[in-house]
Request: fold
Amino acid sequence: MLYIVPTPIGNLQDITLRALDVLKSADYILCEDTRQSGKLLSAYGISAKTLRYNENDSSAVSRLLEVLKSGKNCALVSDAGTPCVSDPGWRLVKAAREAGVKVTALPGPTAAACALSGAGFGGGGFTFLGFMPRKPGKILKMIKAALALERPVIIYESPYRIVKLLGIIKAGIGPDVKAAAARELSKTFEEYIIGTVSEVAENLSARKKILGEFVLILAPSGAENLTEEDNEED
Reply:
């Protein structure tokens, strides 16, 4: 059995009771980074054996698949949040399913849902883009297509590229797009910066140092007033 186990995005107390049970009972815990996962496991006194999972190493996928096929129960975790959602894991899940290994995914923390619920950008659907490509042209093409769906658009970005990304959006789509940049979610210095793309960019550009991974939410015109009823058919 392969368990997909979400882990806290910042606050270790956000782990679920079911996730702890699975981690404690697993034969192996498959980690994006064993050192990072070790902090969580140590905090809860979990001593299960950890194995490094490298998404980009086909031999690692094959090796771990053999472990699963031998009947071992494995828990797949990423450094933070839900595996396979802008985090490693999908190649192993795909291989496991193709090999007939049972796979089950636990519900749990994800930065996208956390940021959206705290931003106040409507109660309907949303479009999740994850991390952006490097080329400005591809970035704008993806975001424009997503905004055309008239739902909030959620993007992940590093502290080193967030200002550049905002600049690309400002120049290619417009300075008045409503945005929320959330950082350090669930941690002591959690922060939401809400305003237009231009205002958010100005706020961050004025800082000597930008810390924390970002969830950037862009709202198309009128999206702040959307409700679940807007998703229903006429």
In short: The beta strands are 2-4, 28-31, 49-52, 74-77, 103-105, 127-131, 153-157, 178-183, 191-196, 214-219. The chain has two domains: 2-105, 111-228. The CA atoms of residues 64 and 92 lie 8 Å apart.
